[in-house]
Amino acid sequence: MTTPEGFRSGLAGPGIDRAADERSIEGLVEGLRADASTRVLVIHGDAAPLAATAESGHSALHFAAPSDVPDDAVWAFLGRDASGRPVLVAALSQDAEQPFAAPGGWAGLRVIGGELGTAHAGAFVEALSLGRWLVDSPFCPACGSLTELRNAGWSRRCPVCGREHFPRTDPAVIVAITSDRDPDRLLLGSNALWGANRYSCFAGFAEAGESLESTVVREVREECGVEVHDVRYRGSQAWPYPRSLMVGFLAAAIDDEAAEADGDEIAAVRWFTRDEIGAALAGHGDVLLPGRASIAHRLIADWHAGAA
């Protein structure tokens, strides 16, 4: 699939050079940890350290030296930055003590991801996706034995049953639904776990043996009772909550009047006018839309701007 020109969600940038060919080098991570010039992105739970706010007001990540990181972190090789310097991730669980006081404080990806430049946003989502797996999955899912890290932190091998395991990614669709009758209307839903005034696109995981296009049709029907057509791919974005690849689509409702919340996962659905979406994007009124780090925000903003 080709991403439409101009579409770029907050976390869909290339990030740093992953330099995957270096992962097979024996002792790579250990050697880089001993090098004071190595840059380390520390992940604590789902938060990363921020640099002091620049005069421009733009946010940036703070990269630590290896010596600044606690010994109980789990390490892996992320790649190389634009200047060729190696970058490691050092992951700590949410229960661990905050490792150090960051110049700009600590922030989660949901909060700060949309405010970062392309390289830092990409590095954050890579580090968080890999770091969560490093911390949460130390045991072999087949036999329960403690695994050994391989490939500079990108795989695990079980010393008992010999199986090799890799970070898991679950594909999910996320869909903005337009009206066939009125090009200035967009259907959004409010999840039952959110506040009453928070709305977003419809989303769900692809099931076994299901294409993404079929997932779009099924999920929209299940969540809001609408049959859709003209399903168009818009872009994708990694979303490590916990390990998703969000694939964004635009689709058109066949019958606007059929829209009705399922009452289980979705508490309310609502058709919004283009003016109402514009006001919400500008922070006016009481309707809350997804944050800038999410592909949902990009789908909505592009529709509002007429770029979808």
Task: Explain what this protein looks like in three dimensions.
This protein has 308 residues and is an alpha+beta fold. It is globular and about 65 Å long. Strands 9, 10, 11, 12, 13 and 14 form a six-stranded mixed sheet that branches. Strands 1-4-3 form a three-stranded mixed sheet. 19% of the residues lie in helices and 28% in strands. Helix 5 packs across helix 6. The chain starts with 27 loop residues before the first helix and ends with a helix. The longest helix is centred in the middle third of the chain and has 19 residues, at 118-136.
How confident is the prediction overall: mean pLDDT? 93
> What is the alpha-carbon Rg in Å?
21 Å
Tell the overall outline: globular
- Which runs of at least 5 residues are low in confidence (pLDDT < 50)? none
Tally of helical segments: 6
Ends distance: 16 Å
N-to-C series of helices and strands: HEEEEEHHEEEEEEHEEEHH
The profile of the biggest β sheet is: 6 strands, mixed
What is the helix fraction of residues, given as a range?
10-25%
Instruction: Give the strand tally.
Output: 14
Q: Kindly estimate the percentage of residues that lie in beta strands according to DSSP.
A: 25-35%
Strand-pairing-aware structural class: alpha+beta
